[in-house]
Amino acid sequence: MKKPGGPARLAFTLRLDAARSVFKPNNTRLLSS
Fold this sequence. Notes:
The protein has 33 residues and is an all-alpha fold.
């Protein structure tokens, strides 16, 4: 895989993190670390 773009990856990561926090708020910190 190529190196993902900064802004694009940031938006994608934030979206993923938000989705995960909705289902597993307690595991969000572990996944983000």
